[in-house]
Structures are given as structure tokens and as C-alpha cells.
Amino acid sequence: MVGSALVRRFQIESRYELVLRTRQELDLTNQAATRDFFNSQRPDVVVIAAARVGGIEANRSQPVEFLVENLQIATNTITAAYEAGCQRLMFLSSSCVYPPTCPQPMREEHLLTAAPEQTNEAYTLAKIAGMKLCSYYRRQFGVMFHSVAPTNLYGPGDNYHPERSHVLPAMVRRFHEAKMQRLPEVRIWGSGTPRRELLFVDDLANAVAHLIELPNPPDWVNVGTGEDLTILEIAQTVARVIGYEGQIHTDPTRPDGPKRKLCDVSQLAATGWKARTDFVVGLKATYADFQAQLAAGVLRSA
Ligand SMILES: NC(=O)c1ccc[n+]([C@@H]2O[C@H](COP(=O)([O-])OP(=O)(O)OC[C@H]3O[C@@H](n4cnc5c(N)ncnc54)[C@H](OP(=O)(O)O)[C@@H]3O)[C@@H](O)[C@H]2O)c1
Known about the structure:
The chain is an alpha/beta fold and 302 residues long. The protein has helices at 2-11, 31-41, 56-61, 63-83, 121-141, 167-180, 201-211, 231-242, 266-270, 279-295, and strands spanning 45-48, 88-92, 144-150, 152-154, 185-189, 195-196, 198-200, 220-223, 229-230, 247-251, 260-261. It has one domain: Rossmann fold (3-Layer(aba) Sandwich). Helix 4 (63-83) runs parallel beside helix 5. It binds NADP nicotinamide-adenine-dinucleotide phosphate (NAP). NADP nicotinamide-adenine-dinucleotide phosphate (NAP) binds at residues 1-3, 23, 27-29, 49-53, 69, 73, 92, 94, 150, 152-153, 166.
């Protein structure tokens, strides 16, 4: 999802020549292949969006793969980029690196102030290692390697797996199916009261384009909207955009998850950037993409 948004964003600028490889062409867990790629291409700027990404169940059942592959992707790409002479690199981390107990909204300095979230500890540890490796390269060798910690993302190219997807794509799928099947009600997990922040993926791509041009960016910076909605409000908005007219009920017997996960975006705002895409506008684009993928028989559901 993010890689495609970055391509959409950078394609429109003639001063960038994109060097792209599919995963089949270049497996970033393969150190030798990654080195060969960087040595032959010698990119000026590197943005690392590749990662093993997944929901709670995938993280719970495969912590070894989540830690090893994400560590390999981070260390292979960052070291190979440096060795190939790259001076500018951005690593995509995640706001899930902040401890679940940290004050809300979450600020950059809350990193490593307490133990990470248990449900995705392996993924989180690898992301923190990648962020720190960038900081260490910057400090030790003077190259401009830095990171972003984006909040929950949504947009074209998301994963719509019925059990394994994130909250927003899961809702898009459920409300779409409920509309098609004319179901009288949709039940959403939990009380509906936890609050979540959602960022349109093309806004993230714009933030990346902004940050990689700054002469002295922060070592890592949160990227979000700085605003959140309750799960029920998100569900109601998704239903409205999709055109589902039945009832929405909450199910308080199901777990709620964290009450709030909101990024403090004041550091990002101080660099002169803020998110611009209205939630309804982003949702309409997301739903249009969902319908197009579904009609073409290529809806991502892995
Ligand atoms: N989605 C979110 O809400 C969110 C929030 C915060 C941060 N992020 C971060 O943003 C980045 C992109 O996430 P996303 O949502 O765009 O996930 P995604 O759609 O699953 O994209 C990850 C990409 O990495 C590729 N990849 C995985 N392992 C690879 C390997 N060994 N070699 C080469 N490519 C590999 C995947 O290829 P395949 O498709 O072939 O598997 C996929 O194209 C990640 O670093 C993630 O941590 C995402």
C-alpha cells in the first residue's frame, strides 16, 4: 500500500528517477542480493517501505518471522545503502513502537520509555532497531539517515483479508458485503468507544516527499493527522460512504483494545507539514479502489 503511494507521489516529479524492483526480483532479506542491487544502482535517496506487516493473529503466531525478516530488511537495506555511498535514507517505522502505557497523544521522546505492546512485540523490536540504526549512522558517519513513525494508514492497495486486515479495510469489506447482501444490521467488535487516528496513505507519501528534502530533519518524527475518531464514528462514516443503510450495533462482549492511540504531530507541524485529506474524501477513494479491485478479481486479501 505505502510503496504504491510513494510511486504515485514521486512519479509526478521529473527530477526523480525511480529505481523499482518487485519482491520477486529482489528479496531484501537476502543480504548478498541486496548489496548487489545497491552497488549496481547507487541510488541517491532511499525510502524503505518494505516489511512483513500483519494483524494481531499473524504477529502472535509468527513472532520469529516478524522479528527476523523485519530486522533483515532493515539492516540489509540500511547497511547496503551506506556502503553504496547513499547520503539520504528514510526508514518507515510505525507509531506502534511507542509503549502502550505512554501518555496520549504519543510524542517522539516516549520511545523506549517502557516495554512495548505485547501483541506485536517482535515487529515493534525490529522497527525500533531500524530507527536506531538510522540514528547511529547519522551520528557516527554523518549521513542523513532518518525515520518516520506513521499512525494507522488506509487507502488504495490495502489488504482486505476477512480476519487478518486492519480495522478500516475490515470495516470497508464488512459494510460492502452487508450492503450487497441487504443485511439489516452490522455488529462491530467492542464498545465502539476506543479512539483511533487514521491517515490517508497518499498524505503519508506527501509527508515522506517533504521530509526527505529537509536539510536537518528530526531523527524520527510522527506522521498522523493529530485527530482521532471513535470506532463507532469510523463505522458510521464507512457505512455512509459505502451506502449501507442498515443498523450498526456494538458488541461490548468483544475486546476493545487500547482506549486511545493518537500521535502528537507538533514536531511534524513545526517542519511545515500537515495532513490535508479529509476522512470522507480518503474513504471515497479507498472504496472506489476496493470496488475496482473486486470487479477485476484482484482484491488483495493475503
Ligand atoms: N499499514 C499501516 O497501517 C502502517 C502503519 C504504520 C507503518 N506502516 C509501515 O509502512 C510500511 C509499508 O506498509 P504497508 O501497509 O504498505 O504494507 P504492505 O502493503 O504489506 O507492503 C509491504 C511491502 O513489502 C514487501 N516485502 C515484504 N517482505 C519483503 C522482502 N523480503 N523483500 C522485498 N519486499 C518485501 C511486500 O511484498 P509482498 O506484497 O510480495 O508481500 C509488500 O509489497 C511498513 O514498513 C509498515 O511497517 C504501515
